[in-house]
Amino acid sequence: MLPFPKGTRYNEAKEFLQDKRRKGQIELNAEQKHGKDTKQLNQTIDQDDYHKDPNAGKKEPAAQGTRASAPLYTALQEYIAKRDASFHVPGHKNGTAYERGAAGAELAGVLALDVTEINGTDDLHHPEGVIREAQELAAGVFGAEETFFLVGGSTAGNLAMILSVCTAPGDVLLVQRNVHKSVIHGLMLAGAHAVFLAPQQDAGSGLATIPSERTVREALRRYPGAKGLLVTHPNYYGMGASLRPLAELCHAAGVPLLVDEAHGAHFGLHPALPESALQAGADGVVQSTHKMLTALTMGAMLHVQGGLLDRGLLRQRLAMVQSSSPSYPIMASLDLSRSKLQAEGPAFFERGLAAAEELRRGLRDLPRFGLLKPGASGDHPAYAIQDPWKAVLYDTTGEWSGYELHAKLEEGGCVPEMSDERYVVLALGPGTTNEDVSRVLRRLGQLSAAGDASRFSTWNIQTDAKWPAWDEVSSPVAFGLRPVGPEEKETILLEECEGRQAAEMVIPYPPGIPLLYPGESVSRRMKEQLMALRRAKAKCQGPADPTLKTIQVIKHRTESREGH
């Protein structure tokens, strides 16, 4: 065991590990640790000895016992063992409705866990028993003061966070321009005004991360009444930058930093992984436990710390946006995901991290396929963080788009997470094996053999790249639920749009980030950008006229209306 006393800070533990590893002093035998596998682990820490940074007010994990290891899941197992006659919903009656025929029989095991709020199973919207205990255990592991289980994915968490800080129509929220659609939906539900902040953009790849410290400082100066800042970190490609400067700026202004960390539920839980948003000081953090950890799809968590969020109001908002009949299998999977992580500690990540390293080693022998690396281009790299479980590939010859490479990988039995015009994203995780990696490397090897080696390059730097540029800090954009009717729109020449309110969204691809939102006023810079896109014959999603000869705007009117 490594000598990490309770209270050891995350960064201290990480530095200690790195120093010991350099000196060759960390070489624990897995047979001694787990009683089976004889493979050597070079970064294994007993969970009882390793603790993340315990900021003031953080709860310690509950005492461990048979029930506390996974209290909600255990309660459901106890209910199943009783074999009570079900005279309550759901109608499948503990899965027995599917046992009489072959179709759907494989669901019976999961459906046995699919109960409702009965004696012993607690209530997500008013937890007092096993759900409360499970959430408290999760808060301890992820470093929050309070954690809420989500059965509607990170979408539910984003909606609830926005609705709890924007409580009156017209409230201003500072928002990173490249956000998930659930954030836009939250703004609409709240009737809020969004001030969009330009993200930092990598000079070579065009991929964007969080706004810069300078941009956030300027936005807070211009809009001192803003209710908070909401950013997405990491992005879909696993890229990011330090959130600490943004947290410090927000707290100095007395507003919360809200983070959509849907793709970073694993951050901060192993020295080889980036710092989590909570460790960086964020106040409200949404994580999709189902994406990069091991919960069922739609299983997510909302973590809270500090005093800048009204937790009573947040609970009420969560009850609004989540089902009154939450899925117990999803909640049980959240409990089990946390339990497994807590029981195994950093060793939980070793297989997936080893697989990621094997993939990177294998790609060195396949020069046709490049791999994005942190800070690979530009004088001021937009990202210093790259999730080791997100491998972002591209064809260095330029022969295949990301979409085409994606399709060719699927044809070989390897299914990527996503792709765009340039890149393919491979998402690894705790369940990724070396066999999986060998399979994708074999397929890439087959594809590489079909290429012309003389066309390969080591990096996709595009020194003449002209990516769209946004206003660093936008004017407030009103959101609401009432749609703009056809009679309220008009189509004008693009050259005439300066100063008008857009009635449609314009999203250039690449990079896939909205240049204009409906209701946003078109600045001179935006008009120039739109005209440059037209000259370049860029692909754009959203506008009725994809050639950008014309654009739809809101008609001039003497009376303003709320939202759009």
Explain this structure:
This protein has helices at 10-22, 30-34, 71-82, 108-111, 130-142, 153-165, 181-190, 213-222, 244-252, 277-280, 289-292, 311-321, 328-344, 350-363, 402-411, 434-448, 524-535; strands at 28-29, 40-41, 146-150, 172-176, 193-197, 229-232, 239-240, 257-260, 284-287, 300-304, 369-371, 385-386, 390-395, 418-419, 424-427, 477-478, 489-493, 507-509, 539-541, 550-554. It has 564 residues and is α+β, with helices and mostly antiparallel strands. It has four domains: 10-51, no CATH class; 71-345, Type I PLP-dependent aspartate aminotransferase-like (Major domain) (Aspartate Aminotransferase, domain 2, 3-Layer(aba) Sandwich); 349-455, Alpha-Beta Complex (Aspartate Aminotransferase, domain 1), CATH 3.90.1150; 482-554, Orn/Lys/Arg decarboxylase, C-terminal domain (Ornithine Decarboxylase, Chain A, domain 4). The strands form six sheets. Strands 3-10-9-8-6-4-5-16 form an eight-stranded mixed sheet, sandwiched between helices. A four-stranded antiparallel sheet has the order 11-13-15-14. The protein has a two-stranded antiparallel ribbon with strand order 1-2. The longest helix is centred in the middle third of the chain and has 17 residues, at 328-344. It is globular. Mean pLDDT is 85; it is low at 1-11, 20-68, 456-465 and 558-564.
